[in-house]
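Work Package 3 (structural annotation) set out to generate three-dimensional models for the target panel prioritized at the project kickoff. During this period the team completed the workflow that converts sequence records into discrete structure tokens, so that structures can be stored uniformly alongside our sequence database. As a representative example, we reproduce one entry of 88 residues exactly as it appears in the project archive.
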Amino acid sequence: GTWHMQLSGSKTWLIRPNSGAVEDWGGDGCPDVSESEFAEETERKAWRLNIKVEEGDLFILNTRAWYHRTELESSVDISASVARDFYL
């Protein structure tokens, strides 16, 4: 997994569940994120979560269980974060 502390600015995380990570989801299986308030449908008709992390936020993600990418807004403000990988 990984944790990220947003020190300044903001960053948007786009994450979707990895259905192949069976051992990470446990008995309930891969979650259906389509009903979440953060859900959006991709061009490929898959559902993902759009999560905006702002200054002071701590974001923790199991990177085996979630496909992920980040985006930065076009801004004159600096977006800086500190990250640390950890093993579950």
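The two ends are 7 Å apart (CA to CA).
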